[in-house]
Specification:
By secondary structure, the protein is of the alpha+beta class. The chain folds into two domains: 329 residues, Up-down Bundle (Outer membrane efflux proteins (OEP)); 68 residues. Helix content is 65%, strand content 17%. The protein is built from eleven helices and eight strands. Helix 5 runs antiparallel to helix 10 and helix 8 packs antiparallel against helix 9. The longest helix is centred in the middle third of the chain and has 68 residues.
Length: 460
């Protein structure tokens, strides 16, 4: 049975390794956590839920209003004077002198119903509420697009920081190797001591760059944590090495400009804000219109004592039933309606100016994103070739350095050129992806499938 011991130990070690392995996060997992924990996005969602109540509240004012009121009182009443003056059956009555104090209880209640028959302002408020709900929905979609872009920017910034750290570590290791070789050659008298000093200075610079790169990685993780509402992230899936961005579809800036002019979410939301401003002018004018309500009420009153209609009473009961119409016509309101009209007209002018600004912003964003995306694709291809060229150049210079035809300064420059080309190639791919997402967002066509496509390009 001893032959099983190594197998059991190996299996146990494998289980421990699997249980302690940390799965890297990808773009979609970060976005999912941001949906649940990003404070700004949650605020917009709450604002939308609040806006949804605008229409029920406006409709409620057009529906029947039923109310019940009641009262219970203890009354102390003193009456003094001549009462019951008049006539009964044509006979004159001179009345009686009364000097009386009563203390009694009184209770009563009223049930009333009011139904609006015509109120122009309330009808316009209902229309405005529907527009406000639609506008809040558009702003929610826009906030979701902004969250997608923000997550992608933070994610690729973190990948860029990871790349920078990897390059800084590789560069420092390569320079350390060159420094060792240079010291050996200096000890053998093959190179001057100045070569050692040059290599040492380059190593010091590389060590400084490595410190900055480690800090950049830590900062990038803090940004992701803030964006997702407190979730901490460690290792992230990077782009597949073979991935190359493709041109936007369609590859025509005019098509994207046309889409932005009609589909940009912020522009569409501002158009609704302009329409709401026009409705507000109608509402302000509507305050001059009459209001007609239907009224119905039932009243019951009971008093244990007192005098009612000039007659001494005990256990007095009274009921009142009313049905009718009530018309209200504003004649003079101290200038409030005229002031409200001027304010609404100014609000419309502001909304129209904001709409023009949103249109210009949408067109600018889509043009910049398209141009950056197109140029980014060309830059990625050029940098891919630059990586191959600098790698070949480094290999050739390294051979020359080994045989003594090249200095360590030449080799260090070649190393730095290759690392810079690799770093720029990685960053160019990230920037091109981001510009494509920004292009679709500016055109109002960014959706979850776009984020899935980018996530599919990662090396899981």
């Amino acid at each position: 049975m001893n032959f099983l011991r190594p197998l059991l130990v190996a299996m146990f070690s494998l289980c421990v390794a699997l249980s302690t392995a940390v799965r890297a996060d990808d773009l979609l997992s970060v976005y999912t956590k941001a949906l649940d924990g990003n404070p700004e996005y949650l605020s917009v969602i709450a604002a939308y839920q609040q806006a949804l109540e605008a229409r029920p509240q406006a409709l409620a004012k057009l529906l029947p209003q039923i109310g019940v009121s009641g009262e219970a009182e203890t009354i102390s009443q003193t009456l003094s004077g001549r009462f019951f003056v008049g006539g009964v059956g044509g006979l004159p009555v001179t009345g009686s002198d009364v000097n009386r104090t009563d203390a009694f209880n009184s209770v009563g209640y009223q049930v009333g119903l009011t139904q609006v028959l015509f109120d122009r302002g309330l009808y316009l408020t209902l229309d405005t509420a529907a527009l406000e709900v639609s506008r809040a929905g558009l702003l929610t979609y826009d906030a979701q697009d902004a969250l997608r872009i923000g997550v992608a920017e933070a994610y690729f910034a973190a990948l860029g920081a990871d790349e920078e750290l990897r390059f800084a570590e590789a560069e420092k290791a390569a320079i350390e190797a060159v420094l060792v070789q240079t010291r050996d050659k200096a000890a053998a008298g093959l190179v001057a001591d100045t070569e050692v000093q040059v290599a040492q200075s380059q190593l010091d610079l590389a060590a400084s760059a490595l410190i900055a790169a480690k800090n950049a990685v830590a900062v990038s993780r803090v940004q992701l944590e803030l964006l997702s509402g407190g979730t901490r992230f460690g290792q992230l899936d990077g782009l597949a090495k073979t991935y190359l961005p493709v041109p936007p579809e369609p590859d025509s800036i005019d098509v994207w400009i046309e889409r932005a002019g009609s589909q940009n979410l912020q522009l569409k939301a501002q158009k609704l804000a302009t329409e709401i401003a026009r409705k507000n002018i109608d509402k302000a004018y509507g305050a001059r219109w009459p209001r007609l309500d239907a009224l119905a009420a039932y009243t019951y009153q009971y008093a244990e004592g007192g005098i009612s209609n000039g007659i001494g009473a005990e256990g007095n009961r009274a009921t009142d039933e009313r049905v009718g119409l009530q018309l209200k016509i504003p004649i003079f309101t101290g200038g409030a309606i005229t002031s409200a009209i001027r304010a609404a007209q100014a609000g419309l002018a502001r909304a129209e100016a904001d709409e023009a600004a949103k249109r210009s912003e949408a067109l600018r964003k889509v043009q910049v994103a398209f141009l950056n995306s197109s140029s980014g694709i060309a830059r990625v291809r050029a940098l891919k070739q630059a990586v191959q060229s600098t790698t070949a150049s480094e290999d050739a210079i390294r051979v020359g350095y080994e045989v003594g035809t090249r200095t360590n300064g030449d080799l260090l420059l070649a190393l730095r050129s290759r690392y810079r080309a690799e770093r720029d190639f990685a960053v160019a791919r990230y920037d091109t992806i981001l510009n494509t997402l920004r292009l679709r967002a500016a055109a109002g066509s960014l959706n979850h499938a776009d984020l899935l496509a980018v996530n599919g390009a990662l090396a899981h």
